[in-house]
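User: Sorry, what's this?
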Amino acid sequence: MKLIDQHTKRIMEGCKERAAAAGLKFDKETLEYTVSNTDMIELSPKNMIPTLYDYWVQDIQVLRGKGEYEYYPNNPYETVINTRPVISFYNNNNPDWLNVMIFYHVLAHIDFFQNNKFFQHTWDYDFKEKALTDKRIIARLRAQKKRQVDYVIEFARSIDNLVGFHSSYQDEEENKQFSFTEKVEFYFGRFMQEIKNAGMNEFLEEVERYNKDSELPDQEHEERFLASIRLRHPEFDNLFEKEQKKKKIRPEEQDLMQFVLQESGILNQEENKWMKSVVEIVRETSLYFAPMIRTKTMNEGWASFWHENLFLNDDRIKGHEVAFAKINAGVTALSKVGLNPYAIGWRLFMYVEEMANKGRLSYDFRRINALNERKAFDSKQMKGRDFIFHVRENYCDFTFFNTFVDQDFVDKHKLMVVGQRINRQRNTREYYVKSRKARDYKEMLFDNLYHPPYITFQRKYENSLYLNHHFEGQELYREYIPNTLMGLEYLWGGTVFLETTELDQEAMRKAAGRDENNVQPIFHRVLYTMKNRKITKENF
C-alpha cells in the first residue's frame, strides 16, 4: 500500500475542482492510496480502517478472502472511509480515464459523508486516530489479560447491533461547548486519579503546571493548558465527552450495551474496569458504522449519479465514452432478482430531480389521477438540483424509499417484485412476477433494509436481566441465541432471560396434515433462561 503518484494526484485535484464547481462540498485535504488485491483482502475485515483493533475473527476472514480470491479473482474499483482527512483506496492498475470516473464517485461519497445529517456525530473527530488509541488500549490489555480480552470483545460484538444510534443525536443545547472549569475538574478528578492512576508526585506536578500560567488572561491560560493536555493525552477529549453524555442520557434512551455498561455488577467491580473499557470501544465503533448501514442505497446512488454527470462533462476523457458506458452499465444495471443499491439509488435520485424540475412534488400534481394529465404535467420549476441536495442532507434509506418510491417510479423503470415457487411437475424452483405495485415494491425495499430487533430490557429480581423482544414479523436467529445469552450472562454477572416469539413447528405440522396447501404460520411466545452457562426454553 502506497500513496498515489503525483501524476494521478493531479488528476484527482482536477476532479475536485470540477466537483466543487458542480456544488459538491468536501474538505480539500484527502489521502489516496493504491493497493493490491492482497491489501484489500487484509483490510476488508477491518472495514478498511487500518487502525481498527485486532480481533481473531479478522484473521479467519482474511484466510477465507484469500481462498475466495483464488477461485473468483476480482478487482474492486475503490473503497473510501469516513475519516479526517478522508482516505480512499484504489486498485494499482487503473488507467487514467477510469481513475477520473472513480475519483468522481469517491468525491460524491465524501460529500455525502460530510453533509448527510446521519453522519453528524462523526464530523468532529478523526475516527482513524481514535481507532488507533482504542487499538493500543486493547493491545496493552491483551498483554496483561491474555485471551480474556478476546472473550469480552466477542461477547460485546454479539450485541453490538443493539446500540442506540438514534438516541446518540443531541439537540443544539446538548451540543454546546463544555466550560473550561468542567474539563479541568474532570482532568484532575476522574482522568488523573481513576483513569491514569497517577501517583501523588505526578498529580502535584500537574497542579503546579496549571498554576504556573495563571497570570495570563483567562482565555489564553485555558487554551494553553488544554492544548498541553491534548498533546500528551490525545484520548482526553473523547473520554470527557463520553462522561458528559452518561450524565445526560435518560433511562428510556439507553441501549442494551449502554445499560450493561452502567448497571452490570461484574463490569463495575474495580478489578474488572478494564472490561468496561473494551465494551465501550466495541460500542463506539458500532455507533460509528451505524449511519453507513442506514444510508447504503442513498450513498451509492448519490455517488453513481455524480460520477456519470461529472465524467461525461469532463474534457479529459474524450474517446473513452464507450468504455465508460460499459463499466457504468455493469455498476448500475437493475437486477431482476435481488437488489442493486447502485441501480436503485441512482435511478431514484434522477427521478426525484426530474420530479422537482417539473413541479411534480407539489400537492397539485398529487391530486391528479388521470394518467395522461400526469404525464403532461410540467410547471417548469427547475429546482431539481437544489432539491436533491436537500434530500442528500436530510434523508436516510428508509425515508428516501418511503417518500419517493411511487407507482410512477415503478412503472417508469418496469420494476417488479419477484416471487419463488416449486414447480411440482418439473420438481424445480422457479421465479415468477409476484407484483408490479409500488406498495409491494416499497415493502420489498423495506424488508432489505437493516433492521435490528426491537428489544427492551430491565433489571429483575436477584440481579437478573430480563430482555423482551417485541415481535415485528421476523423471529430471532435461533442458532445465535445460546451463545449471545451466554456472553451477556458473563458481562452482566447474573441470570439472563429472553422473551421472544417463534414459529410453532409442532402446530404447523399438525395443520399441514389437515390441509397441506393452506398452512399459515403459527407463532407462540417462549422464554429462554441462561443461568450458569446453561440454557433452557419454555413456552408461555
